[in-house]
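re: ur question from earlier - yeah i can do the single chain one, its not a big deal. heres the input i used so u can compare w yours
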Amino acid sequence: MNATPTQAAPRPQTGPRPQTGPRPRLGVVVVTFNTADIITENLESLMAEAGDVALDVVVVDNGSTDGTPEAIRAWADGSAPFTAPADMPFPLSACAKPVRLSPEGAPCPDCTPEAPALTFIETGLNAGFAGGVNRGLAHLAAHSQADRFWILNPDGAAAPGAALAFASAETGPFSLMGGRVIYTHDPDTIQIDGGTVNARTGVTGNVHLGQSHAATDAPDPATMDFITGASMVASRAFYEAVGPMPEDYFLYYEEVDWAYRRPATLPYAYCAGGVVYHRAGTAIGSPTLDRVAGPFSQYFKHRGRMRFVRRHLPGARLTALAYSLAKAGQYALKGHRAEAAALLAGSLDRPPPAAVRGRLSPEARALAFAPYRTQP
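and the output i got, formated as tokens:
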């Protein structure tokens, strides 16, 4: 999946850009699930951009049980004052309160520094990452005039100028645009600049993983196979051509599958100023450079990988399964037996271990463990 490279600065930059005329508009979708302890830093980082960008922010809560909706309301009405965490990589002050929470179906408000606002949707059900994203995208497509929709993880904080950079980057027609995602706990270490897919195993790779943010040039989007769902801008043209994100993965690989559906006329793009700091794995136990992914993450990641292979790389099914067996053996030898069992169950599209199944409500299980289909 190659694309025409964009012209990018030799080093990723983050500050706001000089601007004249009307503010550029950007739709934003944030999907939350049990993120009460981190969601406010995400929202404050977005609201800090309201002076430079007309933001249409949609927060979709996927049936949180930890008080996430209550935390969002308390933040919005000012009853829970915001204090930036001590490890925040950049200065972040609280925006003016109250922040108006608009219901689903209402036109996206024209957010200003004096009257910030966002749309808050409570689904009452964990419909998976794509299910939440699609609910937010449908709202933006119907009610926002933005031509770009930024999908941002709730455990990601937008660096100063990131929203403006994504909204105003001159790329020409594109499908999906990425930027740089950096570890919050180590703010000079890159988590991902874009994604690649091994055509024999379906294993995804992170461009520039572990490299220095300060010393690493912006990548060529022609080398990428997908854009990470942690921070991904979809053009309206792409959304209208391809449709919503496939929901039958529940977690992992949905953005990879989505990217593989793009028309050849809509390349990928990269925005050097679109920097996000990510508290990786806070919600579902995803891996970091020094931590093995937990069983919940292992199950869905490898089930998603094998489903993706069957759908888009059918000739690689045997080598992809061989990889699963080898990886599970490696985990077991290192004492990660629960992780190995979850990986194998997911790879074989078998029922999940009890510990994985028990983390979802009965309604969510019906969606998460629905039978595989060749096409969504």
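The chain is about 30% helix and 15% strand. not sure if urs matches, ping me
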